[in-house]
Amino acid sequence: MKTPAGKTAAGEKTAAKKATTKKAAATKAGTKKAGATSVTTKKAIKKKPVAVPEKATADVKGASGVKTVAAKPPAAESRTALVRRARRINRELAEVFPYAHPELDFDNPFQLVVATVLSAQTTDLRVNQTTPALFAKYPTPEDLAAANPEEVEEILRPTGFFRAKTKSVMGLSKALVENYGGEVPGRLEELVKLPGVGRKTAFVVLGNAFGRPGITVDTHFQRLVRRWQWTEQTDPDKIEAEIGALFPKSDWTDLSHHVIWHGRRICHARKPACGACPIAPLCPAYGEGETDPEKAKKLLKYEKGGFPGQRLNPPKSYLDAGGKPAPPLGAG
């Protein structure tokens, strides 16, 4: 049976119309999919890793190189990875602060324990300005234990909380005389029994007067180890235990100096100098502070116009073999 020519043309026209409609729908779907891909791409761009200095020094001389790192370490960072990252940070800081040491002036364990007690709620600089007069008048535990409290208070007034500090240093001096023959004990259990001496002070004394490893958990240390995600603890004793487990015991004292110096000079509490930080590629908190190298450089804490870490008047125990002060960071 033959189909009329008119009917055949109409059928062909209808089929062509359906094909065009189907093609338009496919094109529209493709455009919508492309748009969704574009949105996804934009979101991906927003999460692009932060560019940080590959190996900056404290004076920003090495901030020209750039290395892309994740803004935070992997959420599932393994114990092994954490240990490696923590130890590498310590090695990097050792290069930046090779002469890190206690910043309290002292000639013997007695002077160090007294100076450390006085350093609470004040600066080491203020303590160093105060202790010469104190030790000149009361050079031994026997002298300080028998002193007139009002005279000691007057000397210690610039350090703040001078009445409480007078009570502590005179009390610990009396305890040294009565219980230890006027000598500072070299054991943690005995040191923490002295008035005004806690674990932090005890480890400062043990590590720097007796050469016995210890971790000094001061405010700088607490802030930085949490900022670096080495621990989530807030209790000093728990921080000490967790950080101690990341490092060999022989590293504890120097580690404390490196972290504290970095906290005082570069990684400040309110505005870290991220753009001048030597460990920027390893820091999960990079970006909390100023990232522009030149602006960050202005945030560094210099000492009397010198380099960060410079020691103008080191204690006698800090002299080199030739009897001269060790050179400041960046010298030579």
UniProtKB/TrEMBL annotation:
<keyword id="KW-0456">Lyase</keyword>
<dbReference type="Pfam" id="PF00633">
    <property type="entry name" value="HHH"/>
</dbReference>
<keyword id="KW-0411">Iron-sulfur</keyword>
<feature type="binding site">
    <location>
        <position position="283"/>
    </location>
    <ligand>
        <name>[4Fe-4S] cluster</name>
    </ligand>
</feature>
<feature type="compositionally biased region" description="Low complexity">
    <location>
        <begin position="1"/>
        <end position="13"/>
    </location>
</feature>
<feature type="region of interest" description="Disordered">
    <location>
        <begin position="305"/>
        <end position="332"/>
    </location>
</feature>
<feature type="compositionally biased region" description="Low complexity">
    <location>
        <begin position="22"/>
        <end position="42"/>
    </location>
</feature>
<dbReference type="InterPro" id="IPR003265">
    <property type="entry name" value="HhH-GPD_domain"/>
</dbReference>
<dbReference type="InterPro" id="IPR003651">
    <property type="entry name" value="Endonuclease3_FeS-loop_motif"/>
</dbReference>
<dbReference type="InterPro" id="IPR005759">
    <property type="entry name" value="Nth"/>
</dbReference>
<keyword id="KW-0238">DNA-binding</keyword>
<dbReference type="Pfam" id="PF00730">
    <property type="entry name" value="HhH-GPD"/>
</dbReference>
<dbReference type="InterPro" id="IPR004036">
    <property type="entry name" value="Endonuclease-III-like_CS2"/>
</dbReference>
<keyword id="KW-0378">Hydrolase</keyword>
<feature type="domain" description="HhH-GPD">
    <location>
        <begin position="118"/>
        <end position="265"/>
    </location>
</feature>
<dbReference type="InterPro" id="IPR000445">
    <property type="entry name" value="HhH_motif"/>
</dbReference>
<dbReference type="InterPro" id="IPR011257">
    <property type="entry name" value="DNA_glycosylase"/>
</dbReference>
<dbReference type="InterPro" id="IPR023170">
    <property type="entry name" value="HhH_base_excis_C"/>
</dbReference>
<keyword id="KW-0326">Glycosidase</keyword>
<feature type="region of interest" description="Disordered">
    <location>
        <begin position="1"/>
        <end position="48"/>
    </location>
</feature>
<keyword id="KW-0004">4Fe-4S</keyword>
<keyword id="KW-0227">DNA damage</keyword>
<feature type="binding site">
    <location>
        <position position="274"/>
    </location>
    <ligand>
        <name>[4Fe-4S] cluster</name>
    </ligand>
</feature>
<keyword id="KW-0234">DNA repair</keyword>
<protein>
    <recommendedName>
        <fullName>Endonuclease III</fullName>
        <ecNumber>4.2.99.18</ecNumber>
    </recommendedName>
</protein>
<feature type="binding site">
    <location>
        <position position="267"/>
    </location>
    <ligand>
        <name>[4Fe-4S] cluster</name>
    </ligand>
</feature>
<dbReference type="InterPro" id="IPR004035">
    <property type="entry name" value="Endouclease-III_FeS-bd_BS"/>
</dbReference>
<keyword id="KW-0408">Iron</keyword>
<comment type="function">
    <text>DNA repair enzyme that has both DNA N-glycosylase activity and AP-lyase activity. The DNA N-glycosylase activity releases various damaged pyrimidines from DNA by cleaving the N-glycosidic bond, leaving an AP (apurinic/apyrimidinic) site. The AP-lyase activity cleaves the phosphodiester bond 3' to the AP site by a beta-elimination, leaving a 3'-terminal unsaturated sugar and a product with a terminal 5'-phosphate.</text>
</comment>
<comment type="similarity">
    <text>Belongs to the Nth/MutY family.</text>
</comment>
<keyword id="KW-0479">Metal-binding</keyword>
<dbReference type="Pfam" id="PF10576">
    <property type="entry name" value="EndIII_4Fe-2S"/>
</dbReference>
<feature type="binding site">
    <location>
        <position position="277"/>
    </location>
    <ligand>
        <name>[4Fe-4S] cluster</name>
    </ligand>
</feature>
